[in-house]
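User:
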Amino acid sequence: MSDEAISLARALSKLGYCSRSRAALYVKSGRVTVNGRVIKSPAWRVDTGKDSIEVDERRLVKPTAVVIMLHKPAGFITTSSDDLSRRTVYELVPGDLHLFAVGRLDLDTTGLLLFTNSGELQDRITSPEKEVVKTYVVTANGKVTSDHIDKLLRGVEIREGVVAKADECEIIESEFSRTRLRIRIHEGKNRQIRRMFDALGKSVITLHRSAIGKLELDLPEGGWRKLCDEEVEAIFR
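Assistant: Predicted structure:
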């Protein structure tokens, strides 16, 4: 097996067929074959460049990367379905393209959210090791001082034993009752920015993601568009 080998579940995701969690279910149910052999272990190692992988007798090939930018409004969750019947971001993008969201924005967070059929691109953006910077505009309750900024840059404990820090942080506008800031991070821990400000004793009033890397949001709220080839290539660079 080559150095390019990955788990079968991850391979289905990278080939744009489905999410990794759903891929694991397909594999365990016997719907997936590798080189003509039924494999029921999601951890089975494959090389997508050499092995023939089929789901329900349909061979999977690496798709042409399609990427959509969405300006996510508040009140939508980043999942394909919800037991509480809340609205999901998948209602806002074309369903016939079979795309999955790259990372998550929580219910009340607005801004730039990407969708793609490329597992490689998803890994490129979400992996902390790749250090793709995400830019957010935060409105925090109360006055945020330079001391608070220093703490965010050095790192704060967001839960027991877990420290998160900002790559950059600057105050845009400061009032007695609230402060507006721009913050950049390359990590993607759950509710990271909200928890970082909680650690300072400052609650987040609004949170908006304005950019991923050099890709800036340029859409009205609720709007979406396909990225051009140059924009997609820039993400991979």
